[in-house]
């Protein structure tokens, strides 16, 4: 419905699920019934997991009545040694009719991680043969849906402690090309610190947490019927400081410290500098 037409809609959902755990295996089944504008849609799904100390195997299958598609995925994470891990997954969506909301598609992802000293260094590849991206008309009713052709991306990450209370959490995603609604590059880098200073405060009633975050999101295009809108790359720096005394936490953070002017959606400017501060306190008798 366009944003110029007032309308109200209601939806009722009924959900029934059950699960069973035996040793390393876990199984869950679910039946979801949706009633929208007098029409009912039924979706049945099942999930299983087998977890051991060195491997995790998981799978999921769903018959989606609302989207008129069948979805399935399977994944495996294998860690034969404490310093190396391999993971991979494959997902398949199959359209059951021409009325399906999304076309048939297949995606896959593989990743290898190596722990050096403290942090994990990982590298991966992901592929998507095709995808249908609905238009985000909540922002602009003129935006157009698009169909993406096969694309491939690479992932790199560093996560974990680096010593003396410091840690790192950083990742980079690069797609083979810039597509509508999707930037080619996206990254987030965080250096954090956390310590209870056990020598000075052996009771553990004092703790300091802090972090500095740099986020980057490349430019992207937003297609219209006659032309395209675009946004430039976004680069923001944020910081966080928290001090805990017993059960009370004083928190203060600033987002976009350098007041970088940027947009994620054309015409919707993000805040220049945003400060958030307060107190968190949990207590019980």
Give a short summary of the structure.
By secondary structure, the chain is mainly β.
Descriptive report:
This protein is mostly beta strands and 285 residues long. The chain is 0% helix and 65% strand. It is built from no helices and 21 strands. A 15-stranded antiparallel beta sheet has the order 1-2-3-4-5-6-7-8-11-12-13-14-17-18-21, with no helix packed on it. Strands 9-10 form a two-stranded antiparallel sheet. A hairpin with a 2-residue loop joins strand 19 and strand 20. The radius of gyration is 23 Å and the shape is globular.
Count of individual beta strands: 21
Based on CA inertia axes, which overall geometry fits?
globular
Strands of the widest sheet, in order across it, are 1-2-3-4-5-6-7-8-11-12-13-14-17-18-21
Alpha-carbon Rg, integer: 23 Å
Q: Report the total helices.
A: 0
Major sheet attributes:
15 strands, antiparallel
Query: What share of the residues lie within helices?
Result: under 10%
Beta-strand portion reads over 45%
Structural class: mainly beta
